[in-house]
Amino acid sequence: MDSITPEGVREQGERPRRVGIMGGTFDPIHTGHLLAAEAAREGAGLDEVWLLPASVPPHKQGAATDGEHRWRMTVAAAEGNDFLRGCDLELRKGGVSYTIDTVLLLRERFPDTQFSFIIGGDMVAYLPNWHRIDEIVEQIRFVGLQRPGYPNAAEGLPDPLRRALTMVPMPLVDISSTDIRERRRQGRSIRYLVPDAVYRYIEGNGLYEPES
């Protein structure tokens, strides 16, 4: 498993490097994730987006595949895009992946980088309920993905959270990892729902196939 290292990150000159962090189980990572990453990068003026597979998300009971498979699919999805890379920080740390712990580790390892967490528009309203959110907003910013036809949840946030948030437009894409896994188990096609490299990895490793 090849991890992000300071030596592997490009210099940006005088101003701090602006990096968006997109976390998720990525089981599997799919085209919708990549569209969201690109929308956030462009809309918020980010230099890069790092894809961060979770070890054990606090709201889920583990993942359907182990971390090594999810990491390799993440790396495969980022191939060919100079502005996109995988970050295995949470997988290496292990345990439950709380945002505050990840933020503190990132700030410790990359003190000259300005980080933003990328979240879906439906998660914006729940920011006040995040574990140790007051500490999080002292360290990073947020980028919220605003889908067309949905209300802007930022308007109801407390002032400190609203000031730490940038909303950017996101195309309406109805793709989910849950649906992709179910399609595989039913023997249905998932081609074009995931990047070609991820599709080949899933096929080559027999992931999400029906149980015999």
Automatic annotation (TrEMBL):
NCBIfam families found in the cross-reference section: cyt_tran_rel (TIGR00125), nicotinate (nicotinamide) nucleotide adenylyltransferase (TIGR00482), PRK00071.1-3 (NF000840), PRK00071.1-4 (NF000841)
Annotated source species: Paenibacillus chartarius
Enzyme class: transferase
CDD domains membership: NMNAT
Entry protein name: Probable nicotinate-nucleotide adenylyltransferase
Pathway: Cofactor biosynthesis; NAD(+) biosynthesis; deamido-NAD(+) from nicotinate D-ribonucleotide: step 1/1
Reaction equation(s) it catalyzes: nicotinate beta-D-ribonucleotide + ATP + H(+) = deamido-NAD(+) + diphosphate
Keywords noted in UniProt: ATP-binding, NAD, Nucleotide-binding, Nucleotidyltransferase, Pyridine nucleotide biosynthesis, Transferase
EC number in record: 2.7.7.18
Record's function text: Catalyzes the reversible adenylation of nicotinate mononucleotide (NaMN) to nicotinic acid adenine dinucleotide (NaAD).
Any coiled-coil regions, as ranges: none
Alphabetized Pfam families for the sequence: CTP_transf_like
HAMAP family for this protein: NaMN_adenylyltr
Every Cytidyltransferase-like domain range: 21-183
Stated family: Belongs to the NadD family.
InterPro entries xref list: Cyt_trans-like, NadD/NMNAT, Rossmann-like_a/b/a_fold
Gene Ontology molecular function: any one: nicotinate-nucleotide adenylyltransferase activity
